[in-house]
Prior knowledge:
Elements: E1 2-4, H1 18-30, E2 36-40, E3 50-54, H2 55-69, E4 76-79, H3 86-98, E5 101-104, E6 119-124, H4 126-130, E7 139-144, H5 151-161, E8 168-175, E9 180-188, E10 195-197, E11 202-205, E12 210-214, E13 223-233, E14 236-242, E15 246-249, E16 252-255, H6 256-264, E17 271-278, E18 282-290, H7 295-302, E19 315-319, H8 332-338
Parallel strand pairs: 4-5, 4-6, 6-7, 7-8, 18-19
Antiparallel strand pairs: 1-5, 2-3, 8-9, 9-10, 10-14, 11-12, 12-13, 13-14, 15-16, 17-18
Amino acid sequence: xxxxxxxxxxxxxxxxxxxxxxxxAFLEEWFSxxxxxxxxxxxxxxxxxxxxxxxxxxxASAEMTCNFLGxxxxxxxxxxxxxxxxxxxxxxxxxxxxxLILKVTAPSVQPLQNINEKIDFCAMTPLQVENSLEHLxxxxxxxxxxxxxxxxxxxxxxxxxxxxxxxxVFETYGMSETLSHIAxxxxxPVSESFFTxxxxxxxxTDERGCLRIFAPHLTTEVLQTNDLVEIKNNxxxxxxxxxxxxxxxxxxxxxxxxxxxxxxxxxxxxxxxIGRKDESLGQxxxxxxxxxKSKEIIDKISKIPFEKSYHRPKEIIFTVKIPRTPNGKVNRxxxxxxx
Length: 339
């Protein structure tokens, strides 16, 4: 399905697939007299919930992203994310705000498989990008969200696109409560270390070192996150990990996401660290790897130069599939429950 928002006619939109029906249902909700829309959280770090968001705030968020990327009327965007969540809804809202032409394709792990035309803008998950590398050249501006982009995936993007491409790839920082992302970090062609917050987004930290966000055009309250960060200046920060995912092993604090990034530089598999109760250590560091057990992978992990000896996993577990939420995030809660 293709939707030209400059010449939109809701009554003539096709609804042949279940996904097209969901897109049309959201458009009806959006163009209704109701001032809010319903959004569902992913449930990757807690119980999923549904809450109402004001349309005017979603439009303000859409303007920020479109202006940052330089999108203009008639540019072509691709929707390949579920519309139950803020990520998919915001792709539609951005298209509405800038009168883009929106190509709609059902969410899958290979969303670019049947794309054979230039696309100006697309939002994808890391898993979708991982499975679409050979088709990535069709997309001028890619934003990646839903989970951290591993060093291994960054390397694959560079190898696939080469050094002379005019395309741009960004990692996003945001959540449902911030109406998608409030900061971007370029990972191609320039590899940046810090996220840059959008204009009119104020950042600070609490006594724990967790990020606080104040964006009055998006939310009336200061949003307190559980994300540990290092702030470089007034609008740039480095994500260190969720405080929920910091474990205490033998009295030492361990940031799981940082270890995962290190491991993913060396192996192609999904890798997740968790803490398991241990009588002597309090919590024992466990590494979960997606895929068949492999001596080669174990050997590679054994050679990783971990900064501290206690960063090395006490146990490595292989699993056929690591559970994910419907929008592609690793579901740590479910993972812990099944191990």
